[in-house]
Amino acid sequence: MPIAIIDGIATRYEVTGSGAPLLMYAPAGLDATLDKWTTQGVYAKTRLLEHLQKAYTCIIFDRRECGQSGGRVERVTWADYVAQGKGLLDHLGIERAHLLGGCMGCCPVAAFAVAHPLMVQSLVLYWPVGGAKYRLSSHQRFAEHLAFVQQNGLAAVVELVTRGGKPFGSDPRGGPWASVIKHDRAFAEAYAKHEVEPYKLIVAGMARGLFDRDTAPGAEPEDLMRVNIPALIVPGRDAAHATFGGALFGGMSAAGGILGCTGGGADGGDDAGAGAGVFGEGGGMRWRSPQETGVGPNSPVPNRGGSNSMSAAPGWPSRLRMLGAFPKRRR
Predict the structure, then answer these.
(1) Tens digits of per-residue pLDDT, 34-57?
(2) Residue 306's domain spans which residues?
């Protein structure tokens, strides 16, 4: 699988399918690897990547500090994740692309739209993270790592990860660089030599910066309100993906003219899309019923396995285009 060096950090990526370019920020929190599009939860259940690659050139990658991508001990921010995605597009010679984020991947997608709006043709935010429980659990994960470092030191972190091999999302004690430690011996050796106190400040700052609110993080509301990019927003509905956390993207954008469709449903279930709504051209919000949008119960979209969700429909890519999420390129 190809590797691109972006800002001195290796990024493992894959390009699959054909059509307009679609940059995909993977789900799974702090273990966002390209395989999650085919192995994790609703993304595997709906065979999302399989459908999308029929109509789009899908660019999937391991986010930095995840999987086989590299990393650097520094206070990682959403801007760093944006830089990785932009760097990958630059590496591939792509000037403009659709963006899709799942779970925590929605955060850098929103930040990307703010930082580089001319590079973004449209956005899909699928089950954005958010909610008080998500913020608290995220801070708790970093706190457990810091407690382990305080008690045992950084060399013990390397030993733990080397022995167990679990990523940060599975074992918080290993910290946000666990995946890099696991596959890069030189990085692991350098990591163990960091001074503990400065390292603790880096980690604490990273946790506070990434998870600084109860709504969906990634971009400031005032910045999103200035963005005018077609967007589809599918809010989640569980402890890590609070429905209001995803809907916030829509509420914030009403004055700025983001076009979008929202609809929440548990794990792509029968009521996904039951609250579908589309933003009007002038930036105002106009709510539509599932029957109007073609999303949700009694939808004309063909569905598999009895599910009435938009995400489970084999015709999802074309349905997204109909809703304005992936508009055809203007000539």
Answers:
(1) 999 999 999 999 999 999 999 999
(2) 3-129+227-323
